[in-house]
């Protein structure tokens, strides 16, 4: 009888210990882990100063918002250009977020802020800033990419002092 009571007590203790450690692990992950998504603006009109998105660009922006529909975002950043703001707008609407503007000439400052805030965020930029910012966040040297590329989403996952950089490809195909 004493063995049964001891065994039952050991099982209950093990379950409570497992439950407590699982709860602590979940809390630690939530508190220490965050993800930043970086996207270049969608297709823009050509030969115009501060161009807006094309029809295809608006469709791509909607596709990005749809692709990130299930992603938890706390903050949304964009440069103050029509094409980047229009790319960010569908995400802002889906997530009920305001768009915070940043200066594309101050990428190091933005990288420091993003790391310090520990928030899930999306940053909309340009062909000469998006990969560079992803590299700053991931401590990897990345440069600009060709202006014809619109289908990349950089995902930077930060957990404590570890950083994982993933480059995702959109399967979006423009209908026009």
Automatic annotation (TrEMBL):
**InterPro entries, sorted:** His_Pase_superF_clade-1 (IPR013078), His_PPase_superfam (IPR029033), PGM_Phosphatase (IPR050275)
The entry's keywords: Isomerase, Signal
A Pfam family this chain is assigned to: His_Phos_1
Position of the signal peptide = 1-25
Query: What CDD domains does this protein's entry cite?
Result: HP_PGM_like (cd07067)
UniProt enzyme class: isomerase
Q: Which GO terms describe its molecular function?
A: isomerase activity
The catalytic activity of this protein is classed by the Enzyme Commission as 5.4.-.-
**Under which name does UniProt file this protein?**
Phosphoglycerate mutase family protein
Q: Which organism is it from?
A: Thalassotalea nanhaiensis
């Amino acid at each position: 009888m004493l063995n049964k009571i001891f065994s039952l007590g050991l099982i209950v203790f093990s379950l409570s210990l497992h439950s407590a450690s699982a709860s602590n692990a979940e809390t630690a992950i939530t508190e220490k882990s965050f993800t930043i998504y970086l996207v270049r603006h969608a297709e823009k009109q050509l030969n115009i100063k501060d161009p807006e998105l094309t029809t295809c660009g608006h469709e791509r922006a909607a596709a990005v918002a749809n692709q990130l529909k299930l992603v938890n975002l706390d903050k949304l950043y964009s440069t103050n250009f029509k094409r980047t703001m229009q790319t960010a707008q569908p995400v802002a609407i889906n997530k009920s977020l305001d768009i915070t503007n940043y200066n594309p000439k101050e990428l190091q400052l933005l990288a420091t802020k993003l790391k310090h805030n520990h928030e899930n965020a999306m940053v909309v930029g340009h062909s000469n800033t998006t990969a560079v910012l992803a590299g700053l966040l991931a401590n990897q040297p990345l440069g600009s990419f060709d202006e014809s590329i619109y289908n990349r989403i950089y995902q930077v996952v930060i957990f404590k002092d570890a950083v994982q950089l993933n480059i995702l490809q959109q399967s979006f195909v423009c209908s026009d």
